[in-house]
Specification:
The protein has 219 residues and is of the alpha+beta class. The chain is built from six helices and five strands. It has a five-stranded mixed sheet with strand order 1-2-3-5-4, covered by helices on one side.
């Protein structure tokens, strides 16, 4: 099976997962939140234990926060129409969204990016950058990082760098084999492999991290 066919199937499976989450857990939590609001109204009209109202308010806050995070997740995994958009425009939209949600700053540099990039490559690079930004936000311990994309002899190169806490790549490689905690990183490597590209992750404790991706603009 060709790389673009495999990537298309992956996107279809992801869309089904998103729909299942939206129609299942999201609806259950929304219903629970509505019922809780009714209970809070009833409690306010009676004489409950003094600590009951604030505890109910805390439960409501947790449900609202959980629902917000799930909806944010679903929004992130429903990419906008990429067919007519340039790769730079796609990256700019993703970075803007990331900055809005995290309040971090991403320096974005684009140079000589090909105007024509095949759709499977756009989608794969979008997913890779999405995961890279998420990992940097969660693990680097910094509020500013850099994304650079450029064209080189028919290929597209992408780097995501930070000056954060860094890590030991050897220990990470062992964790990738032992459990599913770093499934996102494996997914990035697999997408690059499907495109016949190159994937390099370099880091040292206390010296930041640099992710380098090189893939063909067409597959």
């Amino acid at each position: 099976m060709q790389a673009h066919s495999i990537l298309s199937i992956t996107e279809e499976e992801l869309s089904r997962i998103v729909l299942d989450i939206h129609d299942g857990p999201v609806q259950y939590q929304f219903t629970a939140l509505s019922l809780l609001a009714e209970i809070q109204n009833e409690v306010q009209q009676t004489q409950p234990r003094s600590d009951l109202a604030p505890r109910l308010a805390q439960v409501a806050m947790l449900l609202e926060s959980s629902l917000y995070e799930i909806r944010s997740f679903l929004g992130a995994f429903r990419p906008p129409e990429f067919r007519k958009r340039s790769l730079i425009s796609i990256f700019e939209g993703l970075i803007f969204q990331h900055e809005e949600w995290t309040h971090n700053t991403v320096e974005f540099v684009a140079e000589h990016v090909p105007a024509e990039v095949m759709l499977p490559v756009k989608i794969a690079l979008y997913r890779i950058l999405q995961e890279a930004l998420s990992n940097t936000y969660r693990h680097a311990g910094v509020e500013q990082y850099t994304v650079r994309v450029w064209g080189d002899d028919g290929d597209i190169c992408l780097t995501v760098t930070d000056e954060g806490c860094g890590f030991d790549p050897a220990q990470l490689a062992q964790k990738l084999d032992e459990n599913t905690q770093h499934i996102g990183l494996r997914g990035m490597k697999e997408r690059v492999a499907l495109l016949g590209g190159a994937f390099h992750l370099t880091s040292q404790p206390g010296q930041g991290t640099r992710l380098f991706i090189r893939v063909p603009a067409s597959v």
